[in-house]
């Protein structure tokens, strides 16, 4: 029987709109964030200190250990447009049916009444 080898960890950087990035605020780090940060390679630390959003994942357990700079995360224009391109055909198909148009108008009227 083979012993299970430890998998370690991975740092995942989240693509974010760079216009909203603010440098890391070390004073707000939790103990686990401080511990993780100390163990990271210098080039990875530098990106985190500059404000890039990142998560540290325990590969053996498949769980997130900690995250950095998530307050800086903003969806990029490309991500929004990509999502829109993906769901647009389904929306168009839904509204091509008269019963769905009627259901939508009914829902919208009920929503407007509650305002």
Topology:
Blueprint: E1 9-13, H1 31-39, H2 42-50, E2 54-58, E3 63-68, H3 77-95, H4 98-114
Antiparallel strand pairs: 1-2, 2-3
Task: Write up what this structure looks like.
This protein has four helices and three strands, in the order E-H-H-E-E-H-H. With 115 residues, it is of the alpha+beta class. It has two domains: 64 residues, no CATH class; 38 residues. The protein has a three-stranded antiparallel beta sheet, covered by helices on one side. Strand 2 and strand 3 form a beta hairpin. The protein is elongated and about 60 Å long. 8% of the residues are buried. The mean pLDDT is 91.
Name the quaternary structure: single chain
Number of extended strands: 3
Q: What is the count of distinct domains?
A: 2
Strand order, sheet with most strands: 1-2-3
Largest sheet, in brief, is:
3 strands, antiparallel
Helix/strand class = alpha+beta
The end-to-end span amounts to: 66 Å
Question: What's the shape?
Answer: elongated
Helix content: 40-55%
Tell me what portion of residues adopts beta-strand conformation. 5-15%
Overall mean pLDDT stands at 91
| Succession of helices and strands | EHHEEHH
Contiguous uncertain segments of 5+ residues: none
| CA radius of gyration | 22 Å
Number of helices: 4
């Amino acid at each position: 029987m083979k012993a299970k080898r430890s998998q370690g960890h991975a740092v995942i950087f989240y693509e974010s709109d760079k216009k909203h990035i603010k440098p890391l605020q070390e004073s707000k780090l939790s103990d686990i964030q401080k511990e993780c940060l100390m163990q990271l390679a210098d080039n990875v630390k530098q990106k985190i200190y500059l404000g890039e959003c990142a998560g540290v994942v325990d590969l053996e357990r498949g769980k997130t250990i900690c995250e950095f700079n998530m307050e800086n995360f903003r969806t990029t224009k490309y991500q929004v447009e990509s999502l829109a391109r993906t769901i647009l055909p389904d929306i168009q198909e839904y509204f091509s049916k008269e019963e769905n148009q009627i259901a939508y108008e009914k829902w919208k009227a009920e929503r407007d009444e509650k305002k």
